[in-house]
Design goal:
4 strands, mainly beta, 0% helix, 21% strand, four-stranded mixed β-sheet
């Protein structure tokens, strides 16, 4: 299970503020229908970039897009995502 890397600590209520995906980062080819102007549930500037780090020290940025459940059979909206721990930078 990966750790989530946070650039800002959680607030007093435990909520974290995640950075928006950079505008210059292109959409992956497989998400052409779930995100972008062609998707009926597309919300501009809604996707966030979550930085994660695996036990083998490999780190990567993962894109999370809300509302994908309306155009896909898989839903991050309904699926809890668990992380091993939090690492702050």
């Amino acid at each position: 299970i990966a750790k989530i890397i946070l650039h800002n600590p959680p607030d007093a209520r435990g909520f974290v503020r995640l950075p928006l995906c950079p505008a210059e980062k292109p959409l992956p080819a497989w998400s052409y229908y779930d995100e972008g102007p062609g998707s009926p549930t597309w919300v501009e500037n809604a996707a966030v970039e979550v930085h994660i780090k695996y036990p083998n020290a490999q780190a990567m940025a993962v894109r999370f897009t809300p509302l994908c459940f309306a155009t896909s059979c898989l839903s991050l909206f309904e699926t809890p995502v668990l992380f091993q721990d939090i690492e702050t930078t």
